[in-house]
Amino acid sequence: EDEQIVAEIMERRFFPDQAYKTWEGFHFAGHEIRITEATDCYGAVVWPSALVLCYFLETHSKQCNLVDKNVIEIGAGTGLVSIVASLLGAFVTATDLPELLGNLQYNILQNTKQKCKHQPCVKELSWGIDLEKNFPRSSCHFDYIMAADVVYHHPFLDELLLTFDHLCKNDTVILWAMKFRLENENRFVDRFQTLFDLEMISNFPSLNIALYKAMRKDRMKA
User: Fold this and answer.
1) Which InterPro entries does the record associate with it (predicted)?
2) Tell me, what CATH number does 50's domain have?
3) What pLDDT, in 10s, does the model give residues 139-174?
4) Which of 16, 35, 72, 176 is the most exposed place for a label (fewest CB within 10 A)?
């Protein structure tokens, strides 16, 4: 079953006939999505975890209805997840580091303009930095936080956890796809579970990717 679903997920990706083209194509939410990548930067490449999350959003659109929902994607990279969420009716804020915003904005504009109910926005978010200033708790409420492959070999795991904590209200749902590569991933999951109830909703051993749903532990007390 894993291999069959993985094959279906990967069939959503296609490549241009001409080798000189710099975009990569995908089929999600009834649209052909063209993503421009930058191979010299981890954050500007589409990783399989993003495909897994996009596939889930599309195939579970009834139980995970994004229409008119307020969604933020952290570590949006090329913007594929944000684009799919927008095409499915969400109001999306796609965030990443300042050096990635140009390519992110380009991809989102090219793939969502006049196609979405709500035009998504792109915003800088450096994990753990100026969170209250840029995303004040009093006025920012997200129904969903989405993340694909945000945990890898980098020194900012403390800041990542702080960012999840800041953005997540008691009724916010986190959808997080992660590829397990190193022991860092397991340690981060353990720390994540000190703040959030974590449920694995899909698992793809052939890709070494798990898809999680999470909510705040203290939500029932509020």
Assistant:
1) Methyltransf_16, SAM-dependent_MTases_sf
2) 3.40.50.150
3) 999 999 999 999 876 678 899 999 999 999 999 999
4) 16
